[in-house]
Design brief:
The protein is 35% helix and 24% strand.
């Protein structure tokens, strides 16, 4: 996700510093190069050695480092970074940044920084809600800085309320758009994902092996590139970013209702969901008893074809992208579905992709056909987004 990106991590003095150590590890795991600048207060909570061990880089914490200043160290650090994260952004740090006070290395770097800055506030609820902190954060937003959090929950002081450092995946999710060209800004995408569950009785159901991971990754990739995204998620679909509008459903009927309501007139609809083709004709709320029968016959009826329905809507989305999971003759079957369902493109893939972390397949439109080599599902999702952008 962050291969080759250079992140300058400014660390303020608060109890949430211990979580920033884990944030550092996650950034590096995602492929970023990380350098840390610690305030004097931050060093009271965690030693610089911790972050040096995590990053393999010297931690910077002194404004008057003669060697560094002879080389204009604070300016070099500002120029080195692709983006800056300040976490925890304490009340003191927010105040100094808002008023242009440059009395330590981090605040001095911020005076010359022309890169995207993400603030992750963390403090006591009363401090966060104070008029001064709200004025300061508003001022910094007006200057072009971005914020994530704070989250609401139990604080280190024992009080409950807003002031917790945002969840680490949410911080990384908020960082991604700052490092990615906003090529989809202004667009509205709807994506469905995951399996459906068709209930037989209060316990038993009909479903499939789909995990919903690819649909969730497509939603995240579209969000990162600037689109407004609605994810209609079947059971088991992985957790999505807070900025994605998520609608959780269970059955194919619920999926159809949600897709119809939200896809009308949108720019893109992507149907990755593995919707059950059939549902039980007779369903009961209570658990059916096994009894003495060794064999039983059940009656199934067809579920609606959601992709075909969306493609035929009066207020059809601008582009409709379908998926076809097959075990043989992938391309031939996909081309038939492309015509039958009146979609703009279809992604053919093998059923072996379902429930796994890798995927590959074929992108097929009315004008082109491309092989997408088997790779991680994240890379697969990126290739699909790139092909959709060509359609636009």
């Amino acid at each position: 996700m962050l291969d080759g990106k250079r992140i300058l991590l400014g660390i303020g003095g608060g109890i949430a510093v211990y979580r920033v150590a884990e944030l550092t590890r996650l950034l590096i795991k995602a492929g970023a190069s990380v350098r840390c600048v610690m305030t004097r207060s931050a060093c009271e909570f965690v030693t610089p050695l911790t972050f040096e061990a995590l990053t393999g880089e010297q931690v910077h914490d002194q404004l008057f480092d003669l060697t560094g200043e002879r080389e204009m160290g604070h300016i070099k650090l500002a120029r080195w970074a692709d983006a800056v994260i300040i976490a925890p952004a304490t009340a003191s740090l927010l105040a100094r940044l808002a008023h242009g006070i440059a009395d330590d290395l981090l605040s001095t770097i911020m005076q010359v920084c022309d890169k995207p800055v993400l603030l992750a506030p963390a403090m006591n609820t009363s401090m966060w809600e104070s008029a001064a902190s709200q004025h300061n954060i508003s001022t910094l937003k007006q200057r072009g800085m971005f914020t994530v959090g704070p989250a609401i929950g139990l604080l280190a002081c024992g009080e409950q309320g807003a002031g917790r450092l945002a969840e680490l995946p949410d911080i990384i999710a908020a960082l991604m758009p700052l490092l990615t060209e906003q090529s989809l800004k202004g667009q509205d995408w709807v994506i469905n994902a995951g399996p459906t569950h068709e209930s037989w009785d209060g316990v038993r159901l009909l479903s499939n092996r789909a995990s919903g991971k690819l649909g969730q990754l497509l939603a995240e990739q579209a969000l990162i590139r600037g689109a407004a995204v609605t994810l209609i998620a079947g059971p088991g679909t992985p957790t999505s970013s807070a900025n994605i509008k998520r609608i959780d459903i269970e059955s194919a009927e619920q999926m159809l209702t949600a897709c119809t309501r939200h896809a009308a007139g949108k720019d893109i609809f992507i149907g990755t969901a593995a919707v059950s083709d059939y549902r039980f004709t007779h369903r009961q709320d209570e658990k059916l008893k096994r009894g003495d029968a060794h064999n039983i016959t059940v009656q199934l009826e067809a579920n609606p074809d959601i992709i075909a329905f969306i493609a035929a809507m009066q207020h059809r989305p601008r582009r409709v992208i379908a998926f076809a999971a097959e075990s043989t003759n992938h391309i031939d079957y996909a081309k038939i579905k492309l015509q039958q369902k009146n979609v703009d493109a279809i992604v053919a893939n093998d059923i072996c992709n379902m429930g796994h972390d890798q995927a590959g397949g074929w992108w097929i439109s009315h004008h082109s056909e491309h092989t997408i080599e088997r790779s991680t599902k994240s890379a697969f999702a990126q290739h699909i987004i790139n092909h959709i952008m060509e359609l636009l």
